[in-house]
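Why should sequence recovery work at all? Because a backbone constrains its sequence more than one might expect. Tight turns favour small or flexible residues, buried strands favour hydrophobic ones, and helices have their own preferences. The token representation captures these environments compactly. In the example below, the structure is given first.
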């Protein structure tokens, strides 16, 4: 269960959240199971956040700082993650249990990200950095990987 204070800060807006993160730089936000789908979180700093089981469907997370965050079991379907920094994030588990289809990863940094068994059908990965990403077992059917760095 998410720390309710963390969820409340996040829902008050990106500027307040990012200021709070500057005040507490070593904090690892607890957003386990949070329902933040469809939220506009452009540029949010969710570095090292625990987002296991969170609903981020249709959320706008473009240019967000998401490195070293844990997204296992979260719903990222139709989320806009363009130009977001996912380096060293953990997105996938060993099973295809989460909905990550139709994700918009255009220009995102996914270097070193664990995408093992990811359902990336119809994902937009144009220009994404996938260097050293774990794509073993990933479903890339109909994914657009034009100009992606592999």
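From this structural description, the recovered sequence reads:
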């Amino acid at each position: 269960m998410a720390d309710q204070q963390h969820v409340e800060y996040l829902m008050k807006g990106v500027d307040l959240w990012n200021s709070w993160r500057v005040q507490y730089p070593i904090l690892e936000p607890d957003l386990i199971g949070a329902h933040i789908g469809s939220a506009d979180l452009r540029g949010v700093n969710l570095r090292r956040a625990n987002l296991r089981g969170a609903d981020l469907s249709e959320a706008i997370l473009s240019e967000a700082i998401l490195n070293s965050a844990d997204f296992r079991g979260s719903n990222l379907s139709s989320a806009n993650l363009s130009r977001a920094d996912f380096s060293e994030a953990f997105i996938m588990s060993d099973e295809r249990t989460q909905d990550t289809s139709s994700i918009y990863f255009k220009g995102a940094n996914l270097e070193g990200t664990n995408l093992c068994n990811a359902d990336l059908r119809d994902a937009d990965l144009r220009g994404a950095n996938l260097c050293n990403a774990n794509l073993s077992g990933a479903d890339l059917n109909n994914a657009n990987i034009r100009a992606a760095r592999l």
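A few observations help interpret the result. The chain has one domain: 1-150.
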